[in-house]
Amino acid sequence: MEKDLDAIGHVKSVMLDHALRFGPKLVVAVLILVVGVLVGRWVGRVVARGLRRFEFEPPVRLLMVRAVRVVVFALFLILALQNLGIELLPLIAGLSVAGAGVALATQGVLSNVVAGLTIIFTKPYRVSDYIEIVGVQGQVQAINLFSTTLLHADQSRVVVPNRKIVGEILHNYGRIRQSEVLVGVGYDVDLPRALELIRGVTAANPRVLREPAAVVAVAALGESAVQIAVRPWTSVEDFGNVAGELSVAIVDACRRAGVSMPFPQREVRLLGTAG
Question: How many CA atoms lie within 13 A of 275 on its CB side?
């Protein structure tokens, strides 16, 4: 029993000795880290306000602000470790070895980060652009280090890893798209008059952009009608509605103006032989 009491007393004395020796240093180290977090946030806000003067993309500004915060916190972390008396060189060597192992285990993640930085700084597309890449398309909603988020026409979201984008053929529509409506009019119709009528209907639609100007021209001579192609430019948001609205408006205008729009038909002649 006495030996157990002596062992407990020895442990208590050792713990008290360590608490007296390292307790104040530990408290100071925690205070240094707290101050580092607060200073990092303050410096980040200052940098964010300063970057607003430059024409950087939102992801670039966010990346710079986060990098500044990390650097500030790392400096205070070094001060805290030095206050605790920890040797930094062996720690850095150990972290380097561990970092190499982590890098091998997370090659896919790191490739996404590298690709994300490439996209952010080369700017092949920007937020609000409509793009088509690797078999998917949509309006760019967000560009992050790891992925790009697209808003599809059906209001679903498509998340594309950045490593799938870099090096692929990218179709960037920008912020406008060109729609197409095919109109068939009869061969007996006054074509210049029909074209002028369709141009007027197209220009009257509020979703159609004035610049670039809409293309209205004969596209083909069909079996039963002259095919007129109507290709107006519209914003990405209005692209899904403009074709339907123009189709209804053109049919209504042609009916009121007496412009014939024949049904698909084919003339078949039977040639008989005399008996």
Answer: 0
Q: Which amino acid is at 26?
A: L
Mean pLDDT of 230-242: 91
Q: How many helices (H) does the chain have, and how many strands (E)? A: 6, 10
Class at the top of the CATH hierarchy for domain 2-87: mainly alpha
Distances (CA, A) of 64 to 38, 185, 229, 244: 17, 59, 48, 45
Asked, colleague to colleague, whether 2-87 and 176-257 share their fold, the answer is no
pLDDT at 105 (0 to 100): 45
CA distance 197 to 255: 11
Q: What are the DSSP E strand ranges found in the chain?
A: 130-133, 136-143, 147-151, 157-161, 171-174, 176-178, 181-185, 215-221, 226-231, 233-235
Q: What is the pTM of this model?
A: 0.61
Report the pLDDT value the prediction gives residue 246, as an integer from 0 to 100.
94
Burial class (CB in 10 A: 0-12, 13-18, 19+), 217: exposed
For the residues 227-234, what does the mean pLDDT come to?
Answer: 94
- In CATH, the number for domain 124-174 is 2.30.30.60
Q: What is 176-257's CATH number?
A: 3.30.70.100
Mean per-residue pLDDT over the chain, rounded = 80
Per-domain residue ranges for the chain?
Answer: 2-87, 124-174, 176-257
